[in-house]
Amino acid sequence: MKKLLLSLIAVSALAFTTQAQTEKGKFMLGGNVEFNSTKNNGAPKADTKFNIVPSVGYFVSDNFAIGTGIGYGFSKSHEATTLLPNAALKTQEFVVAPFARYYKGINESFKFFGQLSVPMAFGNNKVTTDGDNYTKTSKYSNVGVALSPGFAFFPSKKFGIEFSVQGISYNNNSLKDNNGNKLADSNKSFDIGANFFAPKIGVQFYL
What we know:
This protein has one helix at about 1-20; strands spanning about 25-40, 45-60, 65-80, 90-105, 110-115, 120-130, 135-155, 160-165, 170-175, 185-190, 200-205. By secondary structure, the protein is mainly beta. It has a single domain (about 1-205), classed as Porin. Strands 1, 2, 3, 4, 5, 6, 7, 8, 9, 10 and 11 form an 11-stranded antiparallel beta sheet that branches.
């Protein structure tokens, strides 16, 4: 009887701990960090890409959180040719991504979630032909809407590991020259489908 009582207390404590992670009044902290460096054959230097978008969310009710991510993106690619061996393109952008997320419990340690986000990026493109002095050639804005399913594993009451995929997304990419004229490279895209063999992996902290 004593062992049974202790087991029931342990299970109840674990269930309470998991629920407490996503209950009303809690905060979730996370974000994305990406760094990539690739050197193509014949290129003088490697192409680089860096993004950091920390995010914070607040549970307005049990299992339902709203929040936003704010960050910065940078990329540099070398577009060398025989005539212009030092040509390069540099992009810098400001990123903001408000979101709403709802969790649905599976058991004490796992929960499904669905996230609706509105990622937005505003930046500019600069080019150089001598590898040093960059000139701004265009600016752009990218506004999207994405619905992403996923699930979270909670190894502790303040930490969660997430796996998510891109479900449905829409993007409107507007590219303008320095005079504000819209360029032909502007485009809109709509995608449906999820690649379950290439999930995004992330972590969240619950306070």
